[in-house]
Amino acid sequence: MVKIRLQRVGAKKQPHYHIVVADSKSPRDGRIIERIGSFDPRADKIILDQDKVQTWIKNGAQPTDTVKALIKKA
Predict the structure, then answer these.
(1) Does residue 51 lie in a domain region?
(2) Which residue range(s) make up the domain with 32?
(3) Does the residue 54 lie in any domain?
(4) pLDDT tens-digit profile of 37-66?
(5) How do 62-63 and 45-48 pair as beta strands?
């Protein structure tokens, strides 16, 4: 199953996340299919390509609960 989820990047104690499309069986920071946005929780800044998100959801990708909340907020 393909999921839209967060991939953690950034230094220790300074989280930053990429919003990615990945296979559900791959590790959190493992192989991805496509990067569709980013999220900086310290600045509460969300960058998201809405067209790609809708395309992936239409093709059957399941967003995680956290990503669903970010999509609504963006």
Answers:
(1) yes
(2) 2-62
(3) yes
(4) 999 999 999 999 999 999 999 999 999 999
(5) unpaired
Q: 40, 73 in Cβ contact below 8 A?
A: no
Is the full-model pTM beyond 0.85?
Answer: yes
Residue tagged 């999509």 (tokens): 71
Q: Which 8-state DSSP code applies to residue 71? A: H
**Whether pLDDT at 29 is above 90:** no
- DSSP code of residue 5: E
**8 A C-beta contact, residue 6 and residue 66:** yes
| CATH of residue 43 | 3.30.1320.10
Beta-strand ranges (E) seen in 1-74 are 2-9, 16-23, 34-40, 45-48, 62-63
